[in-house]
Amino acid sequence: MLQVLISAGVVFILLKFLERGKNRGLDGFVSIAFVLVPALLILLANIGAGIIGVDKRFLVPLALLYFIVPLFMLRLQFDLSWGRSFLYGLFVFLVVIVVDSLFYLMIGFIRR
User: Fold this and answer.
1) For the chain, what percent of residues have pLDDT higher than 70?
2) How far, in Å, CA of 86 to CA of 70, rounded?
3) DSSP one-letter string for 27-85
4) Which terminus of the chain has a lower count of CB atoms within 10 Å, N or C?
C-alpha cells in the first residue's frame, strides 16, 4: 500500500508540472484514483486467482490497468485529447512500474 501512495504522489507532482497554468480539476484525489483503482482491481483478481487455483503469472497483463484507467478517465471525464490522455496514461504506467520495482528491490535488500 505504501508504494501506491508514493506512486500517487509522484503522479500528482508530474500532472501538476505538465498541466501548470491550466485548471482542469486534476488534483491529488484524481492521482490517487489513477493508481488505487487498478491496484484494487489487481488485488481482487489475485484473491480470485488464489481461490480458484489459477497460476498468478496469468495476471501479469493486468498491470496494463495502470495505463488503461488513466487513459479513459482523462479522455472521458476530463475531456483531454486522445494523444494527451495516452501520454499521461503512459506516464502513470511507467511511474508505477518504476516505484514498484524500486520498492521490491529495497524490500529484498532489507531482508538480506
Assistant:
1) 97
2) 8
3) -HHHHHHHHHHHHHHHHHHHHHHHHHT--GGGGGGGGGHHHHHHHHIIIIIS---HHHH
4) C
